[in-house]
Amino acid sequence: MTSPPKEKAPVETNETSPSVIKFMEFVKEPMDGKPVDTLPGINRVLGSRLRRQGYGRATSLLGKFMVMDKDRYSFVRWLAEQTGASSQQALECFKCLDAWSSAFM
């Protein structure tokens, strides 16, 4: 009789992912004219696409988020359709705007 396979222990690391750092940095202070690509999930390419559509500042994208009544599904879908963001990128952005609005509004 064989014993069941042993589970591998999770790899522990002291490194924090860049997206987590970007999130923590963004939500700890007011937006004050920050460029849209300072939002988690929004890289330079997506930021450029958003700027061409009039969303050059994080506050502009926050406005869209608010107009959509902070609806996760609608915002994530809209952001993906407008910019070509992956669902993960769009969700990261949504989560950040949601956390920021809870902290500052």
TrEMBL record:
* Gene3D superfamilies referenced in this protein's UniProt entry, alphabetically: Barrier-to-autointegration factor, BAF
Give a Gene Ontology cellular component term annotated to this protein: condensed chromosome
- UniProt organism field: Ridgeia piscesae (Tubeworm)
Tell me the PANTHER family matching this sequence. BARRIER TO AUTOINTEGRATION FACTOR 2, BARRIER-TO-AUTOINTEGRATION FACTOR
Enumerate the UniProt keywords alphabetically: Nucleus
Q: Which Pfam families match?
A: SAM_BAF
Any one GO BP annotation for this protein: chromosome organization
| SUPFAM superfamilies (UniProt xref) | Barrier-to-autointegration factor, BAF
Q: What is this protein called?
A: Barrier-to-autointegration factor
Where, subcellularly, is it found?
Nucleus
**What GO molecular function terms would the record report?**
DNA binding
